[in-house]
């Protein structure tokens, strides 16, 4: 019997009737360390997923490209091993980025003839990809199927019709997208609405205290349209949880993520924000991670931030912080040093 603690909260996924835990656990860290050196292997991952489920988490997000399929396989094994109730479980996965034949990461091997039609958002690839994901997950259907990025070579009409037909087939319940320009996301939903096709109900985008560019267009659109926002990297890949001089494997990965997606014009722009997080955490007697998460959850358009967990103590800390409410003055202090930066790349 699963012990669901009362501290876990559940909310609707946007304007849908689907209930998800207030935290979504991202499964990028479960798979093969040859893909990313901080990833944990199958046995440890499956055991950890069991503990995560016991804490009341019912929302899991993965992607076909994570460890080139291994993440989906591990999640599927955990669901079976711990007899997770499929009726309460919400499984999300993504497609578009190439699933490589080895443990390399090459999102779009356009010059390799072996990968023709094996990535992108064409009808052919999406039909092939959803079947492959279902096989790896060992499930009959996927709750939330997401476009990992849009493929600029494929007409939006083709992608949206393919996703609609996949939903109609019963293989998928809802559809969403991850990190695409607001205008294109809105246009895709307009195309779907015009044709009576299934619309996107969720946006999985980068959003945290050191990357707030989505507040300009995407967040207002999602709030107006009733689209759920499930931000990835709400803790800035760990940047927001520690001083810059702390050295760990994840800290090195966080440094790479900061440079690739959240780079400020000057390093001090990010450092000042981190200093405010740490100061509030010390004053309130909580962790920096709880403060960074509480800020994310203070936004009415945020449904369920996606947190990467490789140690159960980190999840316990975040669950403990679900009730943390920041004051207006604390939120202003956290936001005052933000400086505009380049928009993260949306292509692949």
- Helix fraction by DSSP (H/I, runs of at least 4): 25-40%
Radius of gyration: 19 Å
* Proportion in β-strands: 5-15%
Q: What is the CATH fold-level name?
A: TIM Barrel
Low confidence ranges: none
Give the overall shape: globular
Characterize the largest beta sheet: strand count, sense, and whether it forms a barrel.
8 strands, parallel
Instruction: Summarize the helix and strand pattern as letters.
Output: EEEHEHEHEHEHEHEHHHEHH
Q: How many beta-strand elements?
A: 10
Protein name: NADP-dependent oxidoreductase domain-containing protein
GO cellular component, one term: cytosol
Pfam families: Aldo_ket_red
Organism: Absidia glauca
Question: What's this entry about, in short?
Answer:
This is NADP-dependent oxidoreductase domain-containing protein. The chain is built from 11 helices and 10 strands.
Protein described:
The protein has 348 residues and is an alpha/beta fold. The protein has a single domain (18-335), classed as Alpha-Beta Barrel (TIM Barrel), CATH 3.20.20.100. Helices cover 38% and strands 12% of the residues. The strands form two sheets. It has an eight-stranded parallel beta sheet, with helices on one face. Strands 1-2 form a two-stranded antiparallel ribbon. α5 (182-195) links the parallel β7 and β8 (200-204). α2 runs parallel beside α3 (123-137), α3 runs parallel beside α4 and α8 packs antiparallel against α11. The longest helix is centred in the last third of the chain and has 18 residues, at 267-284. The protein is globular.
């Amino acid at each position: 019997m699963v012990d669901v603690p009362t501290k876990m909260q559940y909310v609707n996924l946007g304007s849908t009737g689907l209930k998800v835990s207030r935290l979504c656990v991202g499964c990028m860290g479960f798979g093969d360390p040859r893909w990313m050196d901080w990833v944990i292997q199958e046995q440890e991952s499956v055991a950890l997923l069991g503990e995560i489920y016991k804490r009341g988490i019912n929302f899991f997000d993965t992607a076909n490209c994570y460890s080139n399929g291994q993440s989906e396989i591990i999640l599927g094994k955990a669901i079976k091993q711990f007899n997770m109730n499929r009726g309460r479980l919400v499984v999300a996965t993504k497609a578009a980025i190439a699933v490589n034949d080895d443990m390399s990461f090459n999102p779009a091997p356009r010059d390799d003839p072996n990968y023709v039609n094996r990535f992108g958002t064409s009808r052919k690839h999406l039909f092939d990809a959803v079947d492959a994901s279902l096989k790896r997950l060992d499930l009959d259907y996927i709750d939330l199927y997401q476009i990992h990025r849009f493929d600029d070579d494929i007409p939006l009409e083709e992608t949206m019709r393919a996703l609609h037909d996949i939903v109609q087939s019963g293989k998928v319940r809802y559809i969403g997208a991850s990190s695409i320009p607001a205008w294109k996301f809105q246009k895709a939903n307009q195309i779907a609405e015009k044709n009576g096709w299934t619309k996107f109900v969720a946006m999985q985008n980068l959003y945290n205290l050191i990357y707030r560019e989505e507040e300009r267009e995407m967040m207002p659109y999602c709030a107006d349209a009733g689209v759920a926002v499930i931000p990835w990297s709400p803790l800035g890949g760990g940047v927001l949880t520690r001083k810059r001089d702390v050295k760990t494997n994840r800290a090195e990965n966080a440094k790479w993520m900061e440079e690739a997606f959240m780079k400020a014009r000057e390093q001090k722009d990010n450092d000042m924000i981190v200093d405010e997080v740490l100061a509030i955490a010390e004053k309130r007697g909580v962790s920096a991670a709880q403060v960074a998460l509480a800020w994310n959850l203070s936004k009415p358009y945020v449904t369920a931030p996606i947190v990467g967990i490789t140690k159960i103590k980190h999840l316990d800390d975040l669950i403990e912080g679900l009730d943390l409410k920041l004051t207006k003055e604390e939120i202003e202090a956290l936001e005052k040093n933000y400086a505009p930066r380049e928009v993260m790349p949306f292509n692949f």
